[in-house]
Amino acid sequence: MTALTVRLPNSVHQKVKELAARDEISVNQFIASAVSEKMASLMTLDFLRAEAAKGQRSDFERYLGMVPDAPALPGDETP
């Protein structure tokens, strides 16, 4: 593990301490979890953007054209 010094405004530090205590975890665990969640969010966006860049409009339209032109099934209607 790596030690890291982080400077936080006093108000943020106080709120982190309160939230960590509420979850019965340490401030360190709270911050590690928050950083992990942010990383997962950014990495997911990167993945989705990369996948979207591979898409082609012609493929979308071809598959959309395969959808039957029929009324929605009961329960699938839009309000």
Structure report:
The model has no long low-confidence stretch (mean pLDDT 95). α1 crosses α2. The chain has a domain of 52 residues. The radius of gyration is 23 Å and the shape is elongated. The protein contains three helices and no strands. It is mainly alpha-helical.
Largest sheet: none
* Helical percentage: 55-70%
Number of strands: 0
**What general form does the structure show?**
elongated
Poorly predicted ranges: none
Q: N- to C-terminal separation?
A: 53 Å
Quick tags:
0% strand; mainly alpha; Toxin-antitoxin system HicB family antitoxin; elongated; 3 helices; 79 residues
Short description:
The protein is mainly α and 79 residues long.
Write the layout of secondary structure elements.
Elements: H1 10-22, H2 27-54, H3 57-65
Helix pairs in contact: 1-2
